[in-house]
C-alpha cells in the first residue's frame, strides 16, 4: 500500500493490527514479540493472535512503532509502507520489520545499541516518524548512561543505517519522549518523560522533586533543526507524554497529555510574533484515597489521540481507569461527551478505598469481558479510520505495570474495543470483543501500542 493511502479521513475497515508484546519484568524469560491480531469480524480467527514474531534478544522492552513511509511523502510513488520501525525502549535496539506480507511479518534488519551510543550519544529510543525526504527520525529519552537527553536519531530510509543526529550539537532537550512535526508551518514539537535511570524499574515520587522528570514541551525549527522555545507547563504539566497536532495541515495548534496531574494543554502559534504558547484546557481531579502509595491518586493521562476529522480528542486515565471522549470543535473549550469507566485501581474488592472523589464516580465492580476479569486499566488507544471503533490495550510500561498492576504481569494484558458514537458523541464498551494476552503459548504477555498496516491517526502526518 502506498504512503498516500490516508489522504482522506476514511478508508477500508481495519482487518489486522500489530502490537508489541513484552516479557521484560514478568516471570517469563522469553524475547518480546510482535503480535498480529485479526480484527475482521467476518474472519474465522476474529479476536485471535494469528502470528507472532519473536525478537532475537531478551529484555528489549518493545514499546512504540512507526513506518518507513506515511502521508508525509505524498506524491512520491517510489515509497511503499512496508517496513515497521520498532525501537526498544530499554535495550536501545531498533528492529526493522518487513510487512510486505502483512499477516506474516519478519525481521528485515536490526540496529544495535552501539550505533546510537557512538554515532549520536543517545539511547532509549521511543517515537518513530518517517520524513518526506525518505529518512526516518526517532526520538530518544536519554544518553548511554541513563541520564535524560531529548535528542533525535536519523536512519537512512533505504539501508536503515544510523546516519547521525537531527538536532545540532548541544541543543538536545533535557528530557525526551514524543514528537510531531508540521512542515507547512516549519515547526516540530517534542515532549518529555523523564530520565531513563529514574523510571526504569518503577515510579518514585521523590524523583519528581529531584528534577528527574520533565514538565516542558519544546518548539523546533523544522528546516534549520534549531530549538526555538522551551515552554514550561508548570507543575500541572508534569510529565507531558503524547503530543498530537490537529491533522489539518493548515492548523497551527494541537494538544499534549500531561500524566502526573492529569491535564491536557493546548499549544498554538500566537498571532503576534509567531511564537508558540500553551494553555491548560482539561484537568481531571485527583481522588483522595487510602491503601495506596500516596494520599492523592491522579488519573495519570498516558495516551491521547485526535480523530482524523479533528472533531474528537480521546485520552486514557490509566490509574483512575477510564477512557474519555471530548468534542474539540471549540479548540479552547473541549467538551466531555463520552466516557467508559473501567477503574481497576479503584474496584470495590481492591485494596484502595476512595475517601473523596470530586467527580463522585464511586468504586465499581471488577470489569469482566467474555468471562475474563480484566487486569490493568485502559492505556494505549487507536481509533479506526471511520472513527467508530476505539481499540484499547492495558499495559503502559513493564516497570510501571509491575508496580501498579502486578496481577496483570501474572495474568496478561488485554485488548478491548469501545464503540464510538460519531454523531453526538458517546462511548460504550463492546462486551463481545476481547483479545486475551494471558493465553499466549509462551505465557502471559504485556501488549502495548496498536498499529494498522495501512497507517492510522497517530502515525500519519499530512503536508
TrEMBL record:
Its main location: nucleus. It is found in: Nucleus; Cytoplasm, Cytosol; Membrane. One of its GO terms (biological process) is protein transport. It catalyses: methanethiol + O2 + H2O = hydrogen sulfide + formaldehyde + H2O2 + H(+). Keywords: Acetylation, Cytoplasm, Membrane, Nucleus, Oxidoreductase, Protein transport, Selenium, Transport. Its EC number is 1.8.3.4. It comes from the Eukaryota. The keyword Membrane applies. It is a peripheral membrane protein. One of its GO terms (cellular component) is membrane. Catalyzes the oxidation of methanethiol, an organosulfur compound known to be produced in substantial amounts by gut bacteria. Selenium-binding protein which may be involved in the sensing of reactive xenobiotics in the cytoplasm. May be involved in intra-Golgi protein transport. Belongs to the selenium-binding protein family. This is Methanethiol oxidase. It comes from Neogobius melanostomus (round goby).
Amino acid at each position: 500500500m502506498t504512503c498516500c493511502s490516508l489522504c482522506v479521513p476514511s478508508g477500508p475497515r481495519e482487518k489486522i493490527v500489530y502490537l508489541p508484546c513484552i516479557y521484560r519484568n514478568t516471570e517469563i524469560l522469553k524475547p518480546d514479540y510482535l503480535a498480529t491480531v485479526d480484527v475482521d469480524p467476518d474472519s474465522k480467527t476474529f479476536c485471535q493472535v494469528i502470528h507472532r514474531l519473536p525478537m532475537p534478544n531478551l529484555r528489549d522492552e518493545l514499546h512504540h512503532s512507526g513506518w518507513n513511509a506515511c502521508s508525509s511523502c505524498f506524491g512520491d510513488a517510489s515509497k511503499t509502507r512496508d517496513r515497521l520501525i520498532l525501537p526498544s525502549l530499554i535495550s536501545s535496539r531498533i528492529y526493522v520489520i518487513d510487512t510486505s506480507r502483512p499477516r506474516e511479518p519478519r525481521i528485515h534488519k536490526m540496529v544495535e545499541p552501539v550505533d546510537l551510543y557512538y554515532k549520536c550519544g543517545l539511547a532509549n529510543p521511543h517515537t518513530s516518524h518517517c520524513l518526506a525526504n525518505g529518512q526516518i527520525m526517532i526520538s530518544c529519552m536519554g544518553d548511554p548512561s541513563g541520564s535524560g537527553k531529548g535528542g533525535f536519531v536519523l536512519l537512512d530510509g533505504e539501508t536503515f543505517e544510523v546516519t547521525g543526529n537531527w538536532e545540532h550539537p548541544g541543543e538536545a532537550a533535557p528530557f525526551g519522549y514524543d514528537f510531531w512535526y508540521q512542515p507547512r508551518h516549519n515547526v516540530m514539537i517534542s515532549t518529555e518523560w523523564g530520565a531513563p535511570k529514574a523510571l526504569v524499574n518503577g515510579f518514585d515520587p521523590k524523583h519528581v522533586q529531584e528534577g528527574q522528570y520533565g514538565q516542558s514541551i519544546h518548539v523546533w525549527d523544522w528546516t534549520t533543526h534549531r530549538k526555538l522555545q522551551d515552554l514550561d507547563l508548570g507543575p500541572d504539566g508534569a510529565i507531558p507524554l503524547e503530543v498530537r497536532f490537529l491533522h489539518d495541515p493548515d492548523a497551527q495548534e494541537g494538544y499534549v497529555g500531561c500524566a502526573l496531574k492529569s491535564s491536557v494543554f493546548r499549544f498554538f502559534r500566537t498571532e503576534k510574533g509567531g511564537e508558540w504558547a500553551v494553555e491548560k484546557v482539561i484537568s481531571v481531579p485527583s481522588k483522595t484515597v487510602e491503601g495506596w502509595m500516596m494520599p492523592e491518586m491522579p488519573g495519570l493521562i498516558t495516551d491521547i489521540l485526535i480523530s482524523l476529522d479533528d472533531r474528537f480528542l480521546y485520552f486514557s486515565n490509566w490509574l483512575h481507569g477510564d477512557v474519555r471522549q471530548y468534542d474539540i470543535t471549540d479548540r479552547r473549550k473541549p467538551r466531555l461527551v463520552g466516557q467508559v469507566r473501567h477503574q481497576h485501581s479503584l474496584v470495590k474488592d481492591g485494596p484502595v478505598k476512595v475517601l473523596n472523589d470530586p467527580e463522585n464516580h464511586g468504586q465499581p465492580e471488577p470489569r469482566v469481558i467474555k468471562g475474563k476479569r480484566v487486569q490493568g486499566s485502559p492505556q494505549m488507544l487507536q481509533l479506526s479510520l471511520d472513527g467508530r471503533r476505539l481499540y484499547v490495550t492495558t499495559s503502559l510500561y513493564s516497570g510501571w505495570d509491575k508496580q501498579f498492576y502486578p496481577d496483570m504481569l501474572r495474568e496478561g494484558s488485554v485488548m478491548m474495543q469501545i464503540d464510538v458514537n460519531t454523531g453526538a458523541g458517546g462511548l460504550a464498551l463492546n462486551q463481545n470483543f476481547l483479545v486475551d494476552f494471558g493465553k499466549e503459548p509462551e505465557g502471559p504477555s504485556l501488549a502495548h501500542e496498536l498499529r494498522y498496516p495501512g497507517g492510522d491517526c497517530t502515525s500519519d502526518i499530512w503536508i
